[in-house]
Predict the 3D structure of the following.
Amino acid sequence: MDQFYPAGVDSCDGAPAADGFFRIAAATPKIRVADVEGNARAVLACVQAAHAAGAGALVLPELCLTGYTCGDLFQNRTLVAACERALAWLLDETRELPLLFTMGLPVAAGGALYNCAAVCCAGTLLGLTVKANLPNYGEFYEQRWFEPAPQDAMLANFAGFENVPLAKSIVYRCADPDMEAVAVGVEICEDLWVAAPPSVGMALEGDATIILNPSASDEVIGKAAYRRDLVRGQSARLYCAYAYADAGEGESTTDLVFAGENLIAENGSLLARTPLMSCDMARADVDLDRLTAERRRSNTWKKPVFPQSDLTFVDFSFTDATSRQDGAVPAPRLMRSALEIDRVFPRAPFVPADHGDLAERCEEIFSLQAAGLKTRLAHTGTKHAVIGLSGGLDSTLALLVTVRAFDALGLPREGITAVSMPGFGTTGRTKGNAQMLAEALGVDFREVPIHAAVEQHFQDIDHDPAVQDVTYENSQARERTQILMDIANQSGGFVIGTGDLSELALGWATYNGDHMSMYGVNASVPKTLVRHLVRYAADVFGGDIEATLLDILDTPVSPELLPPTGEGEIAQKTEDLVGPYELHDFFLYHLLRFGFTPGKILRMAYRSFEGAYDERTIWSWLRVFYRRFFAQQFKRSCLPDGPKVGSVTLSPRGDWRMPSDASSSLWLTQIDALEPNVK
């Protein structure tokens, strides 16, 4: 092949890029109790609005065609017959709309009356999902009118369609090309609130990635928060997207008030929510690709040993069957790329957006890091620790963690030796900050210049010090590690590693230099989070320590291996060499956490960093990231121990097992094919 991936696409067939994003909506029509004709028109307006908004699936409230609060009118034949006619009318009106939607109504079948959600798409009645759990407590008395879902699936002739599945657990699977990830299950209101919701079987056994819940949940104090927790929790437990539509305006207020709160969650995160009493439409682009990845990586998320016998499958298309046969209407493109959606991806996925959550997260991370080190110190009986303190972010964080671990063990801080090892690139600013911080924290501080030792080493290996190449740089890093190891031997202690997760991903460490230690406390903390941890510590300490930490935060990230400028400033800035850490951490998170393709990560980055970097800059650093990530695996294959604090780590004994000789060509070829046209 001349080119494995055609330019601008992610697949061999030349199809436009689709990143697995699918738009779903939850809406509350404004109804009148028992006004079936008027309610059908309100339902149609919601369906049309969802289609206009680009949604592929829409959930509407429970019994929205009649109103949930009809009471004994549900047993009236006139009302029930009107619902069947109204559904037939709705199906005819929506036959050209590529949208799957639910519509709640009572259905008489087999001598019983059922509380159903009619699932419709492109003018076809796909199925009638029946409510399985009928509440009959408190303000609810559904068993007065309805029967729970039949034990075995039934076939019903309804609204002009024959042999329509009628059951409690139906999975609606899209048969259109490249849409196999769209598998929809429906459960109704109370079905979510019970101990074993039907959605569990639909997701586990039926592979449903989207659960729709038509509901009529009346509003009382405290219920909204609990409802949101239920929806979030079920989406997390099932690795699914969960859309919940609530009854609202128009229901009878004789005894109850319905707030019309509509919710959409994905894997534990609430993506969209409408205000109480608003009856607005919630919509969100859910990432089915991400959900599939989560299910694959979690080997405890398995299908049950004994499959559920009550599961029914219905295959559907987003286009009308007649149109498909004629070939006049192609399957709609409802799977979207990251550039076509409303969703915003955080620039710093490792960092909570909320300041309150961030402070709590920082405290938790400090506690985890310190707990890991505390256990290692106690296990080995070690009462001394040695840290190379450069005045930079990583060594500062490592020192703060070590101080906390010593305090927790009741060990004197003088047992911590912070070593400043000025070399050819050390500036007065970083050296001064290292000393001030060590003295303020009450740890032992030593200064061991490395100039003479490295110069002697240059003579030993016959290296010209005027040649400031990788040998010039790495000789300093290895000399520093030798000093730290030997001081640790003198004191009967061990060396605390300072390298962070971002550096490990890029291989930005000298092999057997700063790459090596006895325990790496920062090994699973990315650079973007290191900054927040140090800032959090500044807020906690206050005073002189705060001032020093803030100046360290303001110092450019640098290994300080090349001589400073004539003005004594740092000449070697890491991000000028390997790229912005905020970009690399973004790439790293989505590669390791979800296994996304380079194309998807690139488009997500374009969206997230719009206005901060141009497309070519993002593309260029993505290429650097993949090239370095693959080439530098050999450094990660022999890492020292270190505590895991987040969901993304690179420990060769834990989360990341990769051969050091894996080829990057497949990924780089795809990236090259996506090179922006603008130079």
Observations:
- Residues 21 and 287 are 5 Å apart (CA to CA).
- The two ends are 26 Å apart (CA to CA).
- The chain is about 40% helix and 15% strand.
